[in-house]
Specification:
Enzyme class: hydrolase
Keywords: Carbohydrate metabolism, Chitin degradation, Chitin-binding, Disulfide bond, Glycosidase, Hydrolase, Plant defense, Polysaccharide degradation, Signal
EC number: 3.2.1.14
Number of helices: 9
Oligomer: single chain
Number of domains: 1
Number of strands: 0
Protein name: chitinase
Strand content: under 5%
CATH topology: Lysozyme
Largest sheet: none
Distance between the termini: 66 Å
Pfam families: Glyco_hydro_19 (PF00182)
Length: 231
């Protein structure tokens, strides 16, 4: 039997380890919450028409609850953190029309990639854009569902019904595809989100709109937008 002092030490070490693991996540969440204030979030949403479905669907609380699952979002130095959050919401603003749209306007396209055998389309289900980043395609729905814990293939409509899941899909896509290129400038984030459609001079007005939101939010956060703004 271990001596009493040894037992106390083991318990102490265990508690210290648990706190060490939990503390960084708590700090990150608090950091994001201090930047994404109610005034900032509502300032975006208030620009949408009163009739918009997103007015009652998208909430700051839902976003912050979703962000808890992604502690590396908005991490790093104060400047790096603010730039990433500004970039995220710049794209969200553009994709949803100031948090107006929960689903893509044109719902005629199934966005079904029949070649994707890992995440095959379910008959009758449509994988058009939904949520803050407008998650699109059976591949993304399947992978996001697996990562988050919902049936993205059989119930893609969940993204338009559960606001926390909706923000989680946006943050999942961001952390998987966009976060790794944040150090390359805002232009790289446009490339990752909709580069095939907008970049290379294809839709300059759309690119400039995204840049405009990003610069505006950086200004609100008191940080310079950095280089390489355009894709």
């Amino acid at each position: 039997m271990a001596p009493l002092n040894m037992k106390k030490n083991i318990v102490t070490f265990a508690l210290v380890g648990i706190l060490a693991l939990a503390f960084p996540t708590k700090v990150m969440c608090q950091n994001v919450a201090s930047i994404v204030t109610p005034q900032f979030f509502d300032g975006i949403k208030n620009q949408a028409a009163a009739s918009c479905a997103g007015k009652s669907f998208y909430t700051r609380d839902a976003f912050l609850n979703a962000a808890k699952a992604y502690p590396q979002f908005g991490s790093g130095s104060p400047e790096v953190s603010k730039r990433e959050i500004a970039a995220f919401f710049a794209h969200v603003t553009h994709e949803t029309g100031h948090l107006c749209y929960i689903e893509e306007i044109n719902k005629s396209n199934r966005y079904c990639d029949e070649q994707n055998k890992q995440y095959p389309c379910v008959p009758g289900k449509f994988y058009y854009g939904r949520g803050p980043i407008q998650l699109t395609g059976n591949g993304n729905y399947g992978a996001a569902g697996k990562a988050i814990g919902f049936d993205g293939l059989r119930a893609p409509e969940t993204v338009a019904k559960d606001p926390v899941v909706s923000f989680k899909t946006a943050l999942w896509f961001w952390m998987t595809n966009v976060h790794p290129v944040m150090n390359q400038g805002f232009g790289a984030t446009i490339q990752r989100i909709n580069g095939a459609v907008e970049c290379g001079g294809k839709q300059p007005a759309q690119v400039q709109a995204r840049i405009g939101y990003y610069k505006d939010y950086c200004n609100k956060f008191g940080v310079a937008p950095g280089p390489n703004l355009s894709c």
